[in-house]
Amino acid sequence: MEDMINVIANVGFPIAIALYLLIRGEQKLEALTMSITELSHNINTLCEKVNDKD
Fold first, then answer.
1. What pLDDT tens digit does each residue of the chain (54 aa) get?
2. What is the distance between the alpha carbons of residues 29 and 34, in angstroms, rounded to a whole number?
3. In angstroms, rounded to a whole number, what is the distance separating the alpha carbons of residues 8 and 1?
4. Pairwise CA distance, residues 5 & 11, whole Å
5. What is the 3-state secondary structure of 21-54?
6. Has this prediction a pTM greater than 0.70?
């Protein structure tokens, strides 16, 4: 029983930290994806405006 408690104590914390970092990283990736999509849209809009002036 003590061995099982030691295994949970030793492995549980790193697993919890890894899950926290994965969730946090996923949120950052979603924000970056949205920013890149918005930037692409803005660049296309700007190119259309420049081409319309020509």
1. 788 778 777 888 888 888 889 989 999 999 999 999 999 999 999 999 988 876
2. 9
3. 11
4. 10
5. HHHHHHHHHHHHHHHHHHHHHHHHHHHHHHHHHC
6. no
